[in-house]
Amino acid sequence: MKKINIFLLLPVLMASCLKEPDKSDLIVNKNNPTNNHISQEEVVKPTREQIEERTVTDTVITHVVDISTLPVEIQEEISNENQKLILQLKNINKTNISGHLIPESGQTNIRFNNIELNNQTIDGPFGKDFDYNLDPKGNYGIVIGKSLMASGSQVGKLKIVLK
């Protein structure tokens, strides 16, 4: 009889061990200093890659980016010293935009060179980060390339995050 009871309990124990954890169990009180989990309040809207059009030549890489879906994350690779990257912004409905460059190699000589404004003027240069107020109407372009004031190569992979 005891052997039968053990065999009856065995499937119940296996089923309980195979049960996936409830996602609400993973959210822990953020006031607890030993907490290794992220609280629901700290969860940020995930970035999405939103590239509608991309063209590449020897000297220019052009992306058309819909900023109505911010935040946007773009993975790119600069393949030679003379190349620059231009992000053409569309659907301007925000008055503020910020950007951050994350090169794969920490020694990459790359920066936000300037912002081409809709009235055909240019503002810049910036560094690896920028924060800029936009006039909601018009066309904008963000130019990314080598900093002529620093040494080093711009060749390599990078990630651009626009918020």
UniProtKB/TrEMBL annotation:
Q: Which PROSITE patterns match?
A: PROKAR_LIPOPROTEIN
Designated name of the protein: Lipoprotein
**The species this protein was found in:** Chryseobacterium geocarposphaerae
- What are the top taxonomic ranks of the organism? Bacteria, Pseudomonadati, Bacteroidota, Flavobacteriia, Flavobacteriales
